[in-house]
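User: Structure please.
Assistant: Input sequence and predicted structure:
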Amino acid sequence: MAGRFAALVTAGGRGTRIAELGAEKPLVEVLGRKLIDRAIDIATSSDRASAVYVSTSEHTPLTESYLEGRDVRVIRTSGRGYVEDLHDIMRAIEEEAVVIIPVDMPLITPDSMRSLISSYISEGKASLTVALDPATVRSLGLDVTHTEVMGGREVTFCGVSVVRREDMLKDDYIEAAYLFTDSIDFAVNVNTSKDLAIAEGILEKRNGQGVSGGYFAPVIRRS
């Protein structure tokens, strides 16, 4: 399970809710730094990730242009659907496991990235998905659009996961584990200008503390 890892930044969404800012979502700036730059920095923060891939689509052509010459591999998806696109991406990746990082999560820190990968290795399952307490998300003033009940607890998902590539390509059941956490590192997806303002406020507080991961909370691993 501790083989080669790839980091995949997903950056091909329509971003319709943040279109009011006048930019493709990956190019939206958070405290003066583009979401795509922040995501790539996190993707490269773990020494276990041997390569960084960025998935794009017809909806993010300016992002593709922006990434020209960067040390990342851009994969243009067909836009047929999330599952179909993910299968195409996995066929293009060579590494054994893939850390999936949505481009719109500027609070993820190197510490939380390392914790995620370590948890995946220790769980020994084909996939590990981050599951959040919805109360954590709401406490920041954010909306929760979808929840599920797992093991008697209500959870929501942010889109961060680690998967074994070959298992993802099988049209079959994948043995899964979940990383339950109340860390706000995983709590903010920037979909609206309101989300952006909340993310910037948290990052400003972090910068004032002089640490990059001051809001990271220990995770609780349960399959």
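The CA atoms of residues 123 and 177 lie 7 Å apart.
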